[in-house]
Amino acid sequence: MLSALKSSKPKDQEAYATVIEGLSKLYFSKLLPLENAYKFHDFHSPPLEKSDFESKPMVLLIGQYSTGKTTFIRYLIGEDFPGIRIGPEPTTDSFIAVMNDVRRGIIPGNALVMDHSKQFRPLSKFGNGFLNRFQCAHMPNGVLEGITFIDTPGILSGEKQRVDRGYDFSGVIEWLAERADRIILLFDAHKLDISDEFRRVIEVLKSNEDKIRIVLNKADMIDSQQLMRVYGALMWSLGKILNTPEVARVYIGSFWDRQLVFDTNRKLFELEKMDLFRDLATLPANGTLRKLNDFIRRTRLAKVHAYVISYLKKEMPSMLGKDSKKKELINNLSKVYDTISRTQKISIGDFPNINRMQEYLEVHDFKTFSALQPKLIKVVDDMLANEVAKLVQMIPMVGSLLYIIYLFI
């Protein structure tokens, strides 16, 4: 495993670096002005920083307590990381970014979000309640040269756990999920019950379903007959939450260095491990491709957002009845979407979540919205058609670009 990840750095490093640099320049010179003009950051995600483009691929691990998240990271990197705590009780009560560095150490959350070289600065919006539970464990490690891992607190059951955290746990998970290259949901073969908070977390991951991989861990602790029943129960539970037409891919195994308790399925576990490890090993090379994909998605969303905001501005009366008109527009936002989709020939699937958009619109003054500026839209359209298309051609992995090219159709 270690050799697979250590050898997974992109061979065409110079080409990838050029693409990243190009995306960064395009964002700050062409896309950011459009975002600023229509308050994009108030409704969606904060502005990107240079560190967002230069960051290494990130793997986010999520699961209920004692499912083996921390042990999983240790198994992958081959050694303990600073501040590691492993035990049967809930041991990880913090978000821990495990990153590569020349020295071993721990950076507290408040200091970490002030570091311009790392991509975590926007997390400061979640306040001290979160920052006191956030840290970076850094160390020299061959695997970490290509991938950053995010260990998360174990999810417990009960409403009390959500309240007692002192910060928006689901909001933090959503922010990390948007920037992660891979999201691994870990389940313990002995504990398949999905708590209310875990269900809420999975709900906020739905816009990033393509990044999700599911691991049924500690599978050697049960025999073959029990494993079949556990696997079926897990698939049934996930089917009620994920609501996707595709069957979720579940990797079965025991990701630790201990001897197997039931070794009947040893061959199966080895094959499953290799499948998962191969998937993770592609992340450093595909990281640039993912950033390009996310950039195009963000551009499309910013463009649609501009049309929505400018339409609402245009529909507002200049004198009397502003409050009633605002309420009417918010309540009929689906009709606004349909109108813009029809007139601008934009797929309805490109529009933001209507319920969340209505919530944000409630607290905004429509008088502060900007009218449509066709010049800004044209700059972004030209950027997608020309500059971004050139960046696509610069990526050596032509075979992997079919999905990206499809986005232009």
Give a description of the structure.
With 409 residues, the chain is α/β, with parallel strands linked by helices. It has two domains: 177 residues, Topoisomerase, domain 3, CATH 1.10.268.20; 225 residues, Rossmann fold, CATH 3.40.50.300. The protein is built from 18 helices and eight strands. Helix 2 packs antiparallel against helix 17, helix 9 packs parallel to helix 10 and helix 13 runs antiparallel to helix 17. It is found in: Cell membrane; Endosome membrane. Keywords: Calcium, Cell membrane, Endosome, Membrane, Metal-binding, Nucleotide-binding. This is EH domain-containing protein isoform 2.
How many domains, in number, for the residues?
2
Major sheet description: 8 strands, mixed
Question: Could you name the CATH homologous superfamily of the largest domain?
Answer: P-loop containing nucleotide triphosphate hydrolases
Strand content: 5-15%
Individual helix count: 18
Query: How many beta strands in the DSSP annotation?
Result: 8
Distance between the ends: 38 Å
Rg is: 23 Å
Regarding quaternary structure, what we see is single chain
Level-1 CATH class name of the largest domain: Alpha Beta
The low-pLDDT segments are 398-409
Instruction: Give the neighbour order of strands across the main sheet.
Output: 3-4-2-5-1-6-7-8
Structural class: alpha/beta
Order of helices and strands: HHHHEHEEHHEEHHEHEHEHHHHHHH
- Broad shape: globular
What is the CATH architecture descriptor of the largest domain? Answer: 3-Layer(aba) Sandwich
Quick check: average pLDDT? 85
The share of residues in helices is 40-55%
- As for the CATH topology of the largest domain, it is Rossmann fold
Protein name: EH domain-containing protein isoform 2
Keywords: Calcium, Cell membrane, Endosome, Membrane, Metal-binding, Nucleotide-binding
Domain Dynamin-type G: 53-285
GO biological process, one term: endocytosis
